[in-house]
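Milestone M4 deliverable, item 7.
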Amino acid sequence: MSVYGIARRTAQRRKVMGSAFLKVAVIALLVVGIAGSSVATLHMEAAPEPTDIEDCWAEEAIVALIDEGIITGYPDGTFKPEDSVTRAEFSKMVARAFAVRAAGEPAFSDIEDNWAKTYIAALTEAGIVSGFPDGTFRPSKDISRAEMTQILVRAINLGDKMDGLTQPEPSFIDVSQDHWAFRSIEIANTLGVLPVHFGVVFEPELPATRAETAYMIKSLIDLRIYEGKLARVDNQQGTLTVTTPGGVEQQITMALDTAVYRNNVEAGLDRLLRGDEVYIVSDSLGEPRFIKARGLVTKDDVTTKVSILSKGTLAPEDVEALARSDWNSVREGLEPRLIQNLVGRGLTEEEAATILKQNWAELGELAKKRVAGALSDELGVSQDLIIALLDSDWEQAKAYGQIEVAQYVLMKLLNL
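Output delivered:
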């Protein structure tokens, strides 16, 4: 090969190498530029931690929600955790936290020019918030603890899932069962999302603080939900295994305060049966807070429900004793009141005492009806159900219990 050919090829190789080097250099510059731009962007978008939340009991929740863009601080760099929250501010937080979007316009007369109009519209369309009877929303009004709790329970859509939740005694001394937000407050308490400093006093009308709001929102976002069929129950280890619709097995370890319901009746782990449909709500650590199981109606379901309906007058074992015609086991506690009840129905005390001392199987139909009527009035349970139980007719009793099928047969007594 000639010197000219070698030189020419060398020049071509240098040109190719130079071009390749140029490409690499350009790519490197672009990568560095993009990375630098991303870093700069991240640096610009990352909100600084507020200056006034150090050592705040809700600091972790506040920082997490700020990082996620759900809540914001003030221009002066503060968060003001103990300040109250307006209905407009709360609407924005909830809409962002649970990704609620609006398609239309809200119909409230006082939010047309309000900065949170879009968020309020979104929550209104979703049925999460509502206005006042006069057609206003009152966006500048502070939101109360009760309002906050009810709205958040609606936002996570667990109210219908926890419809079996029963509470013999209110958890808070200032929130009775006739309070309009009682159910939502009890659900939130069962889920373990209420601030611990509430203690046994809820103060439902007290304005919710920004710290309390952040804590509850973060706690609800972190809930884990499992659905499926119960595959195994280990009573000794306190675990249950659920097979999800996708075929994945999930093992759940029970906690001491886990609320467990089977067929809408409070139950222990030993009452759950393989094949039950289960719905489990766990906290961020995977600890179950609420377990709802549904399956074949059992004798335990009926006796426990009757016990609940009797407001504690009859224990489940008392109901079983009555079903075995073992009246003597429960007579002592009930007899005085039943005698008074029968006397009120027109019997003499002697007649009432005579009826109650006889064996159920030996009573005539009239006496049975009188005793069943007295029990019905005393316990709030239907006469037909009482007679079925006292006759040991469990199949009939279970039939009475199928309220979802029979549409409140027996005056809505056994809502199983």
